[in-house]
């Protein structure tokens, strides 16, 4: 795991907008990301990999959840042991973000789920909202926004604004691919929100707002509505 903020403390020169970005460098995560990018990876395997990556990343993303002690009857005696003091809320950005929900819920089945429905205008590349709903008590705990790709960042930024307007204060963004443009937008608009990614691309996006060295349209690949496999 590489935290650019920690690198700066070690006097390694980095751009200021990278301070709130953590990129995972675990071998299993890198391995799975490579297979996500492969055009020969089919929809079923793609979905499985997205869920597995969400689980692997979740261990670190959720490391600061508060705990409380409870008493339980162990086989030999009663013991006092910690459990989570609160639930957290997973908020996928529809539709691609849905592929990451089950991966995080495996870590805590009591986690709640909200939804942000946004689609990107193909001409302006700006987000258009069509749905938004959170659990009634989402503001009482941590909120994790999930989306496989943080490219232009406009959808994630809009989701953060909506969630903040609902009263939530502890917000994180979990993505698999993060581009410099999106990371900078989130940093400038919401410097209090930390971003976690499996792969970071410093390169410019293409003219359609896609990350060149990533997996293409993750929503289409999760849902099987497009295939990048070479035609025989």
List the SSEs and their pairings.
Blueprint: E1 2-3, H1 4-9, E2 21-23, H2 27-37, H3 43-61, E3 67-73, E4 78-84, E5 89-94, H4 98-105, E6 112-113, E7 115-120, E8 127-133, E9 143-146, E10 149-150, H5 154-165, E11 171-179, H6 180-189, E12 194-201, H7 218-223
Parallel strand pairs: 2-12, 5-6, 5-7, 5-9, 9-11, 10-11, 11-12
Antiparallel strand pairs: 1-2, 3-4, 7-8
Judging from the principal axes of the Cα atoms, what is the shape? globular
**From the coordinates shown, what is the CATH architecture?**
3-Layer(aba) Sandwich
Task: State the helix count.
Answer: 7
Distance between the termini: 39 Å
Strand content: 25-35%
Topology as a string of helices (H) and strands (E): EHEHHEEEHEEEEEHEHEH
Low-confidence stretches: 8-13
The SS-based structural class is alpha/beta
Q: According to CATH, what is the class?
A: Alpha Beta
Number of strands: 12
CATH topology: the name is: Rossmann fold
Question: In which range does the helix fraction lie?
Answer: 25-40%
Mean pLDDT: 89
